[in-house]
Amino acid sequence: MTSKTMRDNPLFLRNSFPSAGKWGIPFVSKQALPTDDIMLAACSDTRANDSEENKKKGVHFFVDDYRFSGIYDHPDRSLERYCQYAFLLTPDFSTYADMDLWRQLESVGKNRWVGAYWQSKGLTVIPTISWSDSRSFEFCFDGVEQGGTVAVGMIGCKRSRIGFMRGYNEMLERLQPEKIIVFGTPFPEMKGNIVPVDYQSSRKVVR
User: Fold this and answer.
1) Which residues on neighbouring strands pair with residue 26, listed in sequence order?
2) Is residue 22 part of a domain?
């Protein structure tokens, strides 16, 4: 591949989708999603040609980053596998407070880019929102349309409950979500139209 070819390659530029905010983060549009009986499966539990029962579920990415890093590097390779499911949460690339801000910003950008890519292929996508400390508020809510359904994960949040709630309340104010899919047990003080999803039940896949 020549340098000119690389320079014009959309997967190098990552500029194929509308963007928002100071940093030009790709934009994920809100989509309608029935939430009366939400079921989720971990991305690590998905399979090619999965069972009809599993295909009724959405796919979450609240697992270690290494398990799904390839969906950003080579998005076309996993598309056929993921498109069989009812909906997808955008990948939860880590935004730890002890990461430099440029790494956190990169994680948010990758989250939204993959979501925009999936939407461009006709898939139903719900943006996963994550944050670290107040410094991340400058970008961690960008690229998400207001008034839609969003998802947050509770894994590990009990160790930093105050910080989590500060970011959660900031998310409510900025994004004004219609519904919040909460993966794990919500804190009692969490406001909003919460749709809880049990962690253990998400591990029960039908084979």
Assistant:
1) 19
2) no
